[in-house]
What does this fold into?
Amino acid sequence: SQQGEEDPQALSIQEGENATMNCSYKTSINNLQWYRQNSGRGLVHLILIRSNEREKHSGRLRVTLDTSKKSSSLLITASRAADTASYFCATAADSNYQLIWGAGTKLIIKP
Amino acid sequence: ETGVTQTPRHLVMGMTNKKSLKCEQHLGHNAMYWYKQSAKKPLELMFVYNFKEQTENNSVPSRFSPECPNSSHLFLHLHTLQPEDSALYLCASSQDFGARGGNTIYFGEGSWLTVV
It folds into this structure.
């Protein structure tokens, strides 16, 4: 069953603006991961945040996790054309070894 | 270059054909995966191998047959597929099996499969 659900499904912004994507999930988790997929390519791991963490940074990426609301957000600051891709969240539940994936947010950065 | 190599990148096959997808990882990982990605759907985990042993088979039809001869190589044998099997098939690996441990997944570039 689908665990993570990204919102919005698609997002189009101007280069230089910030992009925010959200992920909601249903069951308690051990960790949540964000991945990026360029069109027609494989997925690339961006960042992992554990259930006892609230915020993590990696370069222009900032991920927050609110376990009380069962949601996470991915913020990309000062977006670039190269950030155009689909972004997926994946959750690891305490009760399951598998990563459960959302359907992704398609981000388009307009030059 | 992610360290996971898939071949072929594109494959067109008829419904009566038999073909195979190949995956090789150069990361020294112990777990390998096959995922199916269809348009506008979440990634579907098909098979998991941990130390060459199959640990997960998520109700995948028998027309998909995985093979893992060693920890570095993974195959997906395809026969009598249906048009709805057309999708991007992604191979992946991780250091160990188990997302709870915080294992991150390394993906190959995928094999685009079209069944005609």
